[in-house]
Amino acid sequence: MTTETTATNPRELAHPTRDEIRLEGVLHALADPMRLRIVRELAAVREELSCSHFALPVTKSTTTHHFRVLRESGVIEQVYRGTAKMNGLRRADLDALYPGLLDSLLAAARSEAERLGAV
Amino acid sequence: MTTETTATNPRELAHPTRDEIRLEGVLHALADPMRLRIVRELAAVREELSCSHFALPVTKSTTTHHFRVLRESGVIEQVYRGTAKMNGLRRADLDALYPGLLDSLLAAARSEAERLGAV
Q1: What single string gives the DSSP state of each residue in chain B?
Q2: Is the N or the C terminus of chain A less surrounded, counting Cβ atoms within 10 Å?
Q3: In Å, how far is A44's CA from the nearest CA of chain B?
């Protein structure tokens, strides 16, 4: 059985495979304070979070845009569960492609937030 | 003597101080293949290189733009030496602000280049 049962599901969101992920795209995705904040939170909780969990100081459409950039760059995985769109960090893929990068980025973001008094 | 002898030099290029460097700006600067290539080369040679050293497949004005983005984000230092504009990686500043980040970024860029057969 190799049938992709989800292939025709209109709620299936497009993701790059691990091989399709590019460093350029990952860095672009993380070069934004809102998106970095989302990633830091996903890394901290180590579980899926719904989009509505994040109370970002931007409009809903901007929030949707940020999640799409993160998904299309391969940083997060988005799946529908019932009526909620759930988000998870693609840590295994990122760690396999770029060992140590995600952790050093998260550490850099944390120390910068502390330095600027915006923890 | 606290006189800044270079303050009135029109060839003095503006740089952020270490404290003014922001992760967002560094990641944006590195989220471009040409700029990442410049940084990889500067990291490899561990010395200053002139702009003209880099034979990038883009116009001269685009090259100048890329160097400016790298300088203004705090990734490189640019100084005039005679008629040449020399470029050096601000490794000490980046390592102090974001320990391990530059090395993991360089390793990620190297492994991606190998993976894509574009070493």
Answers
A1: ----TTTT-TTPPP---GGG--HHHHHHHHSSHHHHHHHHHHHHH-S-EEGGG---SS-HHHHHHHHHHHHHTTSEEEEEETTEEEEEE-HHHHHHHSTTHHHHHHHHHHHHHHHTT--
A2: N
A3: 19
